[in-house]
Amino acid sequence: MRKITKIGVSTALGIVLVLAGITMWKMHDKYSVEQMRVKELEEQLAILSQKEKESAVMQSVNAQMEEIANQQRIISDEQRDEAEQQSRLANEMRQHAEVERQNAQEAEKRALDASKVAEGERVIAENQRVQAEFSKRVADTLSYVAMARNLGNAAITQQRSGNKELASLLAYASYVFTKRYHGDTYHPSIYEAMMLTSGGQRKWAVAHGSIMKTILIPGTTNFMSISTYGEILKHTRTKDNLQTKTIFSNNQFDFRDIYFNKERTFFAVSHTGHLIACKENGKPHVVQIEGAVRPFRIYSLKENELVITAESSLHVIDAVTLRPIKTLPLDFKTSIAGWKNGQIALFDKSLPIMYYVNHDISHVTKQTLPFKGRVMSYNANSKTRQQIFGMYDGTVYYQDPSGNIHKLIGHSSRVSRINFDSDRIYTSSYDGTVRYWNIKSEKMEPISIINSRQWIISLSFDKTHHYIWTGDQNGNLTETLIDITDMATILKSKIKRNLTREALARTSLMRLLLERRRNHEKTTLLMSLGRYYAVERRSAGCSFFQ
User: Fold this and answer.
1) pTM confidence score
2) CA separation for the pair 203, 477 (Å, rounded)
3) Residue 545 in contact with residue 530, Cβ under 8 Å?
4) pLDDT computed for residue 3 by the predictor
């Protein structure tokens, strides 16, 4: 029993101890937690204390910064007041400057207005001066040009009177003055004087019959001619002579035209109805053109084909075999034929009608001419649409590019040939003359280039177009210089003395001219030749004519 009680007491005591242990453990654990919390609080307190200290420091710093800021604000206020004062001064100075600027602008404007007025008056005065000088130059130029023409007329008179030396001096002087003052050196008085005095004309008797045509041999300076006496001649111009070689001669033929193809084979057609072909350095071959009555022209519309124009028919001939290809009969008689825009042009022998032949030689188109008369020669410029008609009575009709017809009077008999050269027309006639017409001049007056007693039948240019060759009824070939620059060169080489003022004054011609022109300006112009020569000689040591 006691034993059981002891065990019970022990058990109870053990339980009490366990409970006490558990209680103590819980209390210890709670204490530990409290200790940790206290430690955390202490740490937080330390942090807060540190922050408080830092806050105190920051407050002190802020106070100091605020003090500094207050001081800077005071300084800034002082500076602002000073700046405002400076700004007020600057505004006052700017306003004063603006007033001064406006005053200056007004003064400048007044000065500019005055300057513009002065400049306008100066410009007006300068324009009047320039106009006066221009008018004076124009008047002087016209006076010098007129003087040059007077000298040209005087040269013509002296040449015809036999005073050739003086005529050469005057002609060359007229050319020099005209060229220097930009006048027309091809004016009749100048050009005729140069033509007469330069002596650029030579004549050779080469054929027995009338020379109907001359033609350049392609690629050379040589040329050929044909005559009504059945002659085909080749000519070579040397320095001092004309060498002539007979290629064919048979007085049974009457040649009217000659043509060269690309292979330099020539074809000559005879009024007797024959065609002659001859290659270079070859033997002439003669064929009869069947049905051709009085053929007179040769054309080529297609390669290796010839078109022979006869009085009342057209004949197409093979240029290689000389066999006929086609014949086109005409219901009218033709007097002459020409070439226009790649077409053959035919002219009625009795009516003022022109016919155009189509390219295939199958039909013709008729056109009535705007004038009456019989056309005997014709030429056209396809590029400029110019046409020239030479009439039986010597009249020449010129159609300009605009289609206007101009009637040119200069020949007294049938016009045989017409040739173009730039702005100049050359016409030959049975009246024995060759005339030149400047189609750019207002009056288009004729200038006489050749005056002879023979009918002039043929007219052509040399290769340079500085010379023309003419053939007449007596078989003469005449070479005539037509380039005025070459004439001046010849005259310059012929002059044997200098043209001084004293020499001019001593001539009876100059005295006569001076008597005819009493006013001061004309007298000055007449004597200017001598004065100019004197200046030239002093400055260059040479003659006026060098």
Assistant:
1) 0.68
2) 6
3) no
4) 61
